[in-house]
Amino acid sequence: MASSFVVGDRFRAKVTQLLGETDSPLPQRLRGELREILEKPEPATLPFSTARKLKQHLQDQRHPFYLHELLEDSSLHLPEFVKPPKNPELVARLEKIKIKLANEEYSRITRNVNTQEKNQIGTLADFGRQVRSVKAIVLTVFNFLVTVVAAFACSYMGSQYLFTETAARVISAVIAASVVGLAELYVLVRTMEGELGEP
């Protein structure tokens, strides 16, 4: 955090002029502080406390210039940030935590990997599981198609009592088959989600 200004040439010139004035002399303590600042090699710094005293003196003596005019070519002095050293116990503890988390992540990723079956091509049990899953998918698709076709046929046949034109019967059958198909898809998706969500 800044606590002083780096003074410029304008400040040096005005303060030298102030130090030479005799009609409104500076207080002895402020005069000493300002002389000390002017005698410092570049870059000289003006503490905020001295700047406040100088501002108060300029206001009290009603000088024709203000402190901000003196500091026009000055800048804030920002001290260099010194990074505190790391606590070795904390660093060691953080390393242990990182290693533990990495091991947990590795275990989570590889929990489904069976190292004993790594080099085997496949067994009859694996083949049987694959056949069963394919069979279930084929049956599900076949069931979906039969349901939609049956809904279409039923709606087409049943709509003859409502409509005399074939176009109206076909449209009503398509609408009924679409509704049944969407409902069937909804149930199918929910079932698939349930199966995929199982551990």
TrEMBL record:
Residue spans crossing the bilayer: 136-158, 170-189
UniProt main location, coarse: endoplasmic reticulum
Gene Ontology, cellular component aspect: endoplasmic reticulum membrane
Keywords, sorted A to Z: Endoplasmic reticulum, Membrane, Transmembrane, Transmembrane helix
Gene Ontology process terms (BP): vacuolar proton-transporting V-type ATPase complex assembly
Keyword Isomerase found: no
Source domain of life: Eukaryota
Endoplasmic reticulum in keyword set: yes
Record's subcellular location: Endoplasmic reticulum membrane
Membrane topology: Multi-pass membrane protein
Stored Pfam families: Vma12
Record-given protein name: Putative transmembrane protein 199
Taxonomic source organism: Scophthalmus maximus (Turbot)
Gene (name only): tmem199
